[in-house]
Amino acid sequence: QVQLVESGGGLVQAGGSLRLSCVASGRTVNSYVMGWFRQAPGKEREFVASIPWSGGSALYSMSAKGRFTISRETAKNTVNLGMNSLKPEDTAVYYCAARLSFRRDYDSWGQGTQVTVSS
Protein backbone atom coordinates (compact mmCIF):
# COMPACT_ATOMS: atom_id res chain seq x y z
CA GLN A 1 0.00 0.00 0.00
CA VAL A 2 0.89 3.62 -0.36
CA GLN A 3 0.07 6.51 1.91
CA LEU A 4 -2.05 9.25 0.41
CA VAL A 5 -2.68 12.76 1.69
CA GLU A 6 -5.17 15.06 -0.02
CA SER A 7 -5.37 18.83 0.11
CA GLY A 8 -7.04 21.68 -1.71
CA GLY A 9 -10.67 21.34 -0.75
CA GLY A 10 -12.79 24.28 0.31
CA LEU A 11 -15.84 26.39 -0.30
CA VAL A 12 -16.46 27.82 -3.76
CA GLN A 13 -19.38 29.39 -5.55
CA ALA A 14 -21.11 27.63 -8.40
CA GLY A 15 -19.18 28.12 -11.61
CA GLY A 16 -15.90 28.41 -9.76
CA SER A 17 -12.81 26.22 -9.79
CA LEU A 18 -10.73 24.23 -7.35
CA ARG A 19 -7.66 22.05 -7.61
CA LEU A 20 -7.22 19.06 -5.35
CA SER A 21 -3.84 17.49 -4.78
CA CYS A 22 -2.82 14.08 -3.50
CA VAL A 23 0.71 13.29 -2.38
CA ALA A 24 1.68 9.63 -2.45
CA SER A 25 4.42 8.09 -0.33
CA GLY A 26 5.59 4.68 0.72
CA ARG A 27 5.91 1.98 -1.90
CA THR A 28 6.95 2.98 -5.36
CA VAL A 29 3.92 4.25 -7.20
CA ASN A 30 5.03 3.47 -10.74
CA SER A 31 2.88 0.37 -10.94
CA TYR A 32 -0.21 2.03 -9.56
CA VAL A 33 -3.34 3.56 -10.98
CA MET A 34 -4.34 6.71 -9.13
CA GLY A 35 -7.97 7.64 -8.73
CA TRP A 36 -10.28 10.25 -7.31
CA PHE A 37 -13.60 9.33 -5.75
CA ARG A 38 -16.21 11.36 -3.96
CA GLN A 39 -18.98 10.79 -1.48
CA ALA A 40 -21.85 13.18 -0.91
CA PRO A 41 -23.98 13.06 2.25
CA GLY A 42 -26.39 10.17 2.15
CA LYS A 43 -24.93 8.79 -1.08
CA GLU A 44 -22.53 6.04 -1.97
CA ARG A 45 -18.96 6.77 -2.89
CA GLU A 46 -18.57 7.22 -6.62
CA PHE A 47 -15.72 7.19 -9.10
CA VAL A 48 -14.62 10.54 -10.50
CA ALA A 49 -11.41 10.02 -12.47
CA SER A 50 -8.29 7.89 -12.71
CA ILE A 51 -4.91 7.89 -14.39
CA PRO A 52 -2.09 5.36 -14.58
CA TRP A 53 0.94 6.64 -12.74
CA SER A 54 3.24 5.39 -15.50
CA GLY A 55 1.31 7.31 -18.14
CA GLY A 56 -1.61 6.57 -20.38
CA SER A 57 -5.18 7.60 -20.82
CA ALA A 58 -7.21 9.09 -18.04
CA LEU A 59 -10.74 7.93 -17.34
CA TYR A 60 -13.59 10.15 -16.20
CA SER A 61 -17.10 9.69 -14.94
CA MET A 62 -19.84 11.21 -17.04
CA SER A 63 -20.34 13.96 -14.50
CA ALA A 64 -16.65 14.85 -14.49
CA LYS A 65 -15.93 14.65 -18.20
CA GLY A 66 -15.32 18.03 -19.76
CA ARG A 67 -15.10 19.84 -16.43
CA PHE A 68 -12.49 17.96 -14.40
CA THR A 69 -8.90 17.13 -15.32
CA ILE A 70 -6.74 14.57 -13.58
CA SER A 71 -3.00 14.93 -13.93
CA ARG A 72 0.17 13.78 -12.23
CA GLU A 73 3.43 15.42 -11.24
CA THR A 74 5.85 12.51 -11.11
CA ALA A 75 8.71 14.51 -9.60
CA LYS A 76 6.48 15.42 -6.67
CA ASN A 77 4.64 12.08 -6.38
CA THR A 78 1.47 14.13 -6.70
CA VAL A 79 -1.80 13.59 -8.50
CA ASN A 80 -4.05 16.57 -9.06
CA LEU A 81 -7.71 16.97 -9.87
CA GLY A 82 -8.57 20.26 -11.50
CA MET A 83 -12.24 21.07 -11.25
CA ASN A 84 -13.92 23.78 -13.30
CA SER A 85 -17.51 24.92 -13.71
CA LEU A 86 -18.35 23.50 -10.32
CA LYS A 87 -21.96 22.80 -9.47
CA PRO A 88 -23.70 22.44 -6.11
CA GLU A 89 -24.10 18.73 -6.87
CA ASP A 90 -20.30 18.43 -6.87
CA THR A 91 -20.38 19.01 -3.12
CA ALA A 92 -18.82 15.97 -1.46
CA VAL A 93 -15.81 14.62 0.36
CA TYR A 94 -13.22 13.82 -2.27
CA TYR A 95 -10.87 10.91 -1.76
CA CYS A 96 -7.62 10.03 -3.46
CA ALA A 97 -7.06 6.32 -3.98
CA ALA A 98 -4.52 3.95 -5.47
CA ARG A 99 -4.53 0.40 -6.79
CA LEU A 100 -1.98 -1.79 -8.44
CA SER A 101 -2.49 -1.69 -12.17
CA PHE A 102 -3.34 -5.39 -12.40
CA ARG A 103 -5.94 -5.23 -9.65
CA ARG A 104 -9.50 -4.02 -9.93
CA ASP A 105 -10.01 -2.71 -6.43
CA TYR A 106 -8.40 0.32 -4.86
CA ASP A 107 -6.69 -0.61 -1.62
CA SER A 108 -5.06 2.64 -0.53
CA TRP A 109 -7.15 5.65 0.43
CA GLY A 110 -6.53 9.13 1.67
CA GLN A 111 -8.42 10.76 4.51
CA GLY A 112 -10.56 12.88 2.19
CA THR A 113 -10.98 16.59 1.61
CA GLN A 114 -14.27 18.47 1.69
CA VAL A 115 -15.47 20.35 -1.37
CA THR A 116 -18.52 22.55 -0.93
CA VAL A 117 -20.09 24.38 -3.85
CA SER A 118 -22.63 27.05 -2.97
CA SER A 119 -25.41 28.09 -5.30
Integer average pLDDT: 94
* Overall 3D form: globular
Helix content: under 10%
Distance between the termini: 38 Å
Give the DSSP E fraction (strand runs of 2 or more residues): over 45%
- The value of Rg in angstroms is 13 Å
Number of strands: 11
Description:
With 119 residues, the protein is mostly beta strands. The protein is 0% helix and 55% strand. It has no helices and eleven strands. The protein has strands at 2-7, 10-13, 18-26, 32-39, 46-52, 59-60, 68-73, 78-83, 92-100, 108-109, 113-118. Strands 2, 4, 5, 6, 9, 10 and 11 form a seven-stranded mixed β-sheet that branches. The chain is globular. It starts with a strand and ends with a strand. The mean pLDDT is 94.
Keywords:
119 residues, mainly beta, four-stranded antiparallel β-sheet, 11 strands, globular, single chain, 55% strand, seven-stranded mixed β-sheet
